[in-house]
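for the writeup, i need someone to sanity check this before i put it in the appendix. the sequnce is what the collaborator sent (i think, or maybe the updated version? ugh). structure was predicted straight from it, no edits. if anything looks off just tell me and ill rerun, i have time this weekend
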Amino acid sequence: MNRRLGVLISGRGSNLQSLIDAIRRGDLGARIALVISNRPEAAGLLRAREAGIETLCLRPRDFPDRAAYDQALADALKAREVDLVCLAGFMRLIGTPLLDAFPNRILNVHPSLLPSFPGLEAQQQALEHGVKVAGATVHLVNEALDAGPIVLQATVPVMPDDTAETLSARILVEEHRIYPRAVALMLSGSWRIDGRRLLPVQKASS
C-alpha cells in the first residue's frame, strides 16, 4: 500500500507539482492525501484540485494563537492518516503541536546549502556573500529555523552575472529533482538520526 503524504503550501506549489509528477511517473511510491494552505489564494490549491487531491485552507487569523493553528494542522493531517508531512513553500514556522504529532516526519526544502543562508531570501544572501556554489537542501524540521538534520543536498554554480531571480530558477530545478528522492528515502525507513546527522541504516551481514 502506498504511503500517505500531507503537503503544506503558501504559494504556487511548484514543489508540490514535483511530488505529483514523481508519483505519476512511478518514481515515488506514495499518494498525497491532503494539501493544506494558509492562504486561500495560493495557486498550489488549484494544482492539487486538478490532480484530484483533497485540499484545505486554514487561515491563521481564524485561530486564537499559533499553538491552536498548529494543532488544527496536526489534527487535519492525522485524520487523513498521513505518514509524512512535506513543506512545499509553506511560509510559516512549525510549532510544537505539529512537531509532536509528527516527530522526525516533517520535511522541508530550502534554496541554499544549509547551514549557510537559512531563512528568507537565501539566494540573495548567497549573492551578497559572494559564494561560488549555491544549492538546495531537503531537511527534517525541528524547533529551530532551517536547522534539522539534512536529508539530501544538490549544488548549483553561481555565475558572475547571476541575479537572485536567475539563481533561484536554477536552484528550483534541483529542488524539484531532490525533493521526491528525499521523500522516498524517508518513507523507506532506511535511516537513523545520530545527533544532527541523518545516516543510512547499516544492513546486517549474512
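The first strand starts at residue 3 and ends at 9. The chain has one domain: 3-191.
thx in advance!!
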